[in-house]
Design a protein that fits this description.
Blueprint lengths: L2 H8 L3 H4 L3 H10 L1 E5 L4 E3 L7 E7 L2 E6 L5 E7 L4 E2 L13 E4 L3 E7 H10 L2 H26 L2 H16 E3 L5 E3 L5 H8 L3 H13 L3 E4 L2 E4 L1 H8 L1
Antiparallel strand pairs: 1-8, 2-7, 3-6, 3-8, 4-5, 4-7, 9-10, 10-12, 11-12
Length: 229
Amino acid sequence: MNSNSVKLLLQQFPLFRSLTENEINLIVRLAVTREYKKDSHIFFQGDPLTDVYFIFSGKIKIYRLDAQGNEQIVNILKKGDMFPHQGFFRKDSYPANAQAMEDAVLIYIPIQSFEQFLIRNPEVCIKIFRILGDQIMELHQRLEEKILYNTYDQILLLLLRLTKKHGKKLNEQEFLISTLLTNRDLANMIGSSRETVNRTLSQLKKRNFIRYEDGYIVTRPDKFREELI
């Protein structure tokens, strides 16, 4: 990947969008590109935190393992996402595992080098704080859903989030979630059991809230919202 491709990708991020030509060129000099095969790990929870990643292509699963070794999916990221969001300010280790769900191309910036850039360009710090604020609000919302909503409603809210982030509009009512997810994946995202998710999705399918197309979930977010009122 040439430097111009890296530059065009990085300029899509709110973090870098308003940088001057000279500033973004300095960032590009810090960036390194690497390819990852499907199912390969970018890093493991507990590894020393050394780099922040930007997705050029592919999808990345962020997950943790609980005390029993069960997988808990924290997030599924796609092209244009960065991770870990708190990476610029942590000094210890990666807070979760990162695994490629499909062949992926990532751009990463060494944290130590980037910190030196931030010292010389403090206005960039403000943009980072805004991004972190958005991420904190999303995590707060998900925690609130876990506390206030039953499992059925949590699944509806999860499907709404996935539709917003990964949905491709098919028509006025339907959206196809472009990430291929198993019922186990969905269960891991809300800390539920696969059996519970199976029953709920079967119920939603019977009510025409969802359908499947080549294994992908097609949603009716309008029906979800009506149900949650």
